[in-house]
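== Item description ==
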Amino acid sequence: MDEAGIEYWVDSGTLLGVYRNKGLIPHDIDADVGLTQAGFEKIRQTKLNIPENYELFVNNSPHYRNGPFDFLPGRFADKRTGLYVDLFEFLPLQNTIQVSKNKTFKFEVSGGQANEYRNGNTTLLMHTDKDATVYMEMEVVEEEVIEQLAPVASVAWWACTKCPEYRHFIVPKDWIYPLQRCPFDGKEVWCPAKQKEYLVMLYGDNFMEPQNPNDR
């Protein structure tokens, strides 16, 4: 994909292998790759030069056969060994959250009378003998829009430990970008920017401990 100018990052178990072993997890038979919607659309519309004995499956493409599952938009398979790479399309999302912040406010207060100031649902009444400038630090709650990326919810994410929704892997965009180069079996691949946070959401706080003794 590097040669075709298609942006990607290693995902799921492949990212776990990169983080723990700088390569595939031992005995793993597949790899996982994430792409943005724009990157995946480029694959759909581009007829790539696929080596003999390999096949690229891409759903809803004029150039490739549909893959085995509706929820999995792409798969690159070695027809000789059965090894394959699953391609996940990450769609853009937005989430509005409530964020508490400390802010300093400046008030010009007229002496000898009640001064009322409103900030959202908060009302302040101030009384001073003389004209004064008052600075006050207050905790305020503001709405903040978080840019996110997520594949469609599916059984592919059944093992996600801390997904915000059932079988729906959703991450802030800044967990992925800017992409980082990572060592992988003597080569380099693209990885998400915040790999630890990414892996904790997928596999929990103990993601560094192999669950299968054969993976040690």
User: Anything to note?
Assistant: The first strand starts at residue 9 and ends at 10. The two ends are 30 Å apart (CA to CA). Residues 95-144 form one domain.
